[in-house]
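Hi support team,

I've been running sequence recovery on a batch of backbones for a student project. Most finish fine, but this one hangs at about 90% for roughly twenty minutes before it completes. I'm not sure whether the input is malformed or the queue is just slow. I've pasted the structure tokens below so you can try to reproduce it. Let me know if you need the job ID as well.

Thanks,
M.K.
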């Protein structure tokens, strides 16, 4: 009896292991299918995706691509203002086994908002907008963490550049705990245009920088505002700093003279929430 029970136990363990392996294999197959669905390969399919208004995250095009269809595609990309990166054919070959014809486009898992329309909608609702502008945050984990905090703090929208920023992909969504699927995200070509429109609409502009002269606790976050957070290595660009109404800093007591950008953003956003709740 004991031997029989031992054999039954071992068979049960083996069956469970085989079942889990099957489930894992199924998951990986589904995951790969999802990845393929987010990628469009070939000149004509990419043209059709642009014409259909798909939310294209990035287009990678083989360097020195020529021909009538290639010229037509390049014109449509410029017309739509889509980010394009010119790469060697080898990189495209590593990305997909499909006949890419020198062009691969990745479809964004989120739908981007138009900043002008979103801002006008917030003002029409009688809100005092608080908008977070991320000046070339390149780390996916930082981007996800910032948007997660922004969603928790009740930020109205996040603005990112159309190029030179962390890609909004599955990793970013995971790091944001799904907040990227909930938070309005605007992807804009020209941040100067964004800030000019915001200021014309009555929003103040606050730049978060360790070189700022104003302590963050002295900033009036109850007013409508755009908060700018800079990139991890170079901070906020000079042209955006010049457009800011106030440059605010966080106090540093230790020898390390800067905070992680996602941590710093969290401090600023929660100070805004504290002031608006008082």
């Amino acid at each position: 009896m004991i031997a029989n029970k031992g054999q039954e136990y071992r068979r049960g363990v083996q069956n469970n292991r085989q079942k889990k392996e099957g489930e894992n294999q199924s998951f990986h197959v589904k995951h790969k299918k999802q990845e393929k669905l987010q990628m469009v390969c070939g000149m004509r399919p990419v043209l059709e995706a642009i014409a259909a208004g798909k939310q294209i995250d990035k287009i990678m095009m083989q360097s020195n691509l020529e021909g009538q269809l290639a010229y037509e595609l390049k014109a449509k990309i410029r017309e739509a203002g889509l980010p394009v990166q010119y790469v060697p054919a080898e990189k495209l070959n590593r990305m997909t086994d499909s006949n890419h014809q020198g062009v691969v486009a990745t479809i964004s898992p989120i739908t981007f908002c138009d900043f002008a329309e979103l801002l006008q909608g917030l003002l029409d609702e009688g809100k005092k907008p608080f908008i977070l502008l991320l000046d070339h945050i390149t780390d996916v984990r930082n981007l996800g963490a910032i948007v997660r905090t922004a969603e928790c703090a009740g930020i109205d929208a996040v603005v990112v550049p159309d190029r030179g920023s962390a890609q909004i992909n599955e990793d970013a969504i995971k790091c944001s705990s799904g907040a990227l699927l909930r938070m309005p995200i605007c992807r804009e070509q020209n941040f100067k245009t964004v800030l000019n429109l915001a200021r014309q609409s009555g929003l103040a502009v606050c730049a978060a920088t360790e070189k700022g002269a104003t302590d963050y606790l002295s900033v009036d976050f109850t007013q409508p505002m755009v908060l700018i957070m800079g990139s991890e290595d170079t901070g906020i660009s000079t042209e955006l700093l010049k457009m800011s109404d106030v440059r605010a800093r966080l106090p540093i007591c230790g020898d390390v003279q800067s905070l992680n950008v996602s941590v710093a953003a969290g401090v600023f956003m929660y100070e805004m929430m504290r002031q608006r709740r008082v």
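--
Follow-up from support: It reproduced on our side and the slowdown came from queue contention, not your input. The radius of gyration is 24 Å. No action needed from you.
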